[in-house]
Amino acid sequence: MDTTDLADGIARGERRALARGITLVESARADHQAQGAEVIAALPRDRHALRIGLSGTPGVGKSTFIEAFGMMLIGQGLRVAVLAVDPSSARSGGSILGDKTRMDRLSREPGAFIRPSPSRTHLGGVARRTREAVALCEGAGFDVVLIETVGVGQSETVVAQMADLFLLLLAPAGGDELQGVKRGIMEMADMILINKADGDLKPAATRTCADYAGALRLLRKRPQDPEGYPRAMMVSALAEEGLEAAWADMQTLVDWRRREGFFDATRAAQARYWFEEEVRQALLSQLDDPRVRAGMDDLAAHVAQGDLTPVAAALELVQTHLRR
Ligand SMILES: Nc1nc2c(ncn2[C@@H]2O[C@H](COP(=O)(O)OP(=O)(O)OP(=O)(O)O)[C@@H](O)[C@H]2O)c(=O)[nH]1
Ligand SMILES: [Mg+2]
């Protein structure tokens, strides 16, 4: 495989080349991953997409929103890529098929690219693959990269750490309680979108939106936010309402952050974070080496017999068995 040809194809915006590039970075094979890295290195560096992270629990309307929001962006002449981070192996091919039908219009647009999540991989691997897929989409000249994740546990953090904007999609709540959204996730959100604000659900959506607007005001002010952000607003992905307003507010926020230097500062901080994360992963992966494993088992036996303290044994392992 000629990685230069592939990179050229991606840089020309060819979707098939992009799909092949993503397949390389998603592969479990080391040689494929190395080729993928070569492709990324050969891409033009002056292209930058707006990276938008989107999270929400199953059924809140993420796919419907992405379809409608994506079509609106396409209508404005923008090219849109959609990636997904899905760490749970529980989600089967059924959801991906479901997504294909829910994103039917978008998937047929020449200016759009939709890539379902690689399944059955652990979160550490998913994070790297998704970042590389984002880099490939940027190199292919997409204007907006939407990174979707289902709101379960850690994946929001992963997505928020690779996005310029992080959106939380919520459904209208029945009661007056704040749908058990974890504080940590609220604190990551730049905008909370109350979806399904249509028909019978409109009054509940209005209440939910007010509740979250209030909750957001109570959070500690973040330096990267202008007055009025993070904000909560209502949308209907199904009725295609509120999407332009949401996009306008996103652009206001991004423009402000660019002017004030927070946009670049956040990307720099994210790059640092991922560097450190890669170091952690590389160190951890050394523990999978059979010789290290054997040394560890040996030391563990001594620890179990009481010949060595856990601390002393750990130090010995690090000093004698790990590559330095
Ligand atoms: N009334 C109303 N229904 C909506 C809206 N958006 C989505 N739905 C419906 O909610 C259901 C779930 O929508 P999806 O877009 O599949 O939700 P999702 O968040 O992608 O779900 P998962 O992929 O399972 O995580 C579907 O029946 C949609 O038609 C909306 O704005 N209003
Ligand atoms: Mg979906």
Write a compact overview of the structure shown.
This protein is an alpha/beta fold and about 325 residues long. It has 14 helices and 7 strands. Strands 3-2-4-1-5-6-7 form a 7-stranded parallel β-sheet, with helices on both faces.
Write the layout of secondary structure elements.
Layout: H1 3-11, H2 15-26, H3 30-41, E1 50-56, H4 62-75, E2 80-85, H5 93-102, H6 104-107, E3 112-115, H7 123-139, E4 144-150, H8 155-160, E5 165-170, H9 183-188, E6 191-194, H10 202-218, E7 231-234, H11 243-260, H12 262-286, H13 290-305, H14 310-321
Parallel strand pairs: 1-4, 1-5, 2-3, 2-4, 5-6, 6-7
Bound molecules: guanosine-5'-triphosphate and magnesium ion.
Guanosine-5'-triphosphate binds next to α4 and α5.
Describe the structure.
The chain starts with a helix and ends with a helix. The model is unreliable at 89-94 (pLDDT under 50). The protein is globular, with a radius of gyration of 22 Å. The protein has helices at residues 3-11, 15-26, 30-41, 62-75, 93-102, 104-107, 123-139, 155-160, 183-188, 202-218, 243-260, 262-286, 290-305, 310-321; strands at 50-56, 80-85, 112-115, 144-150, 165-170, 191-194, 231-234. It has 324 residues and is an alpha/beta fold. Helix 13 (290-305) runs antiparallel to helix 14 (310-321). It has 14 helices and 7 strands. Bound molecules: guanosine-5'-triphosphate and magnesium ion. Magnesium ion (MG) binds at residues 62-63, 99. Residues 56, 58-64, 95, 102, 150, 195-196, 198, 201, 236-238 line the site of guanosine-5'-triphosphate (GTP).
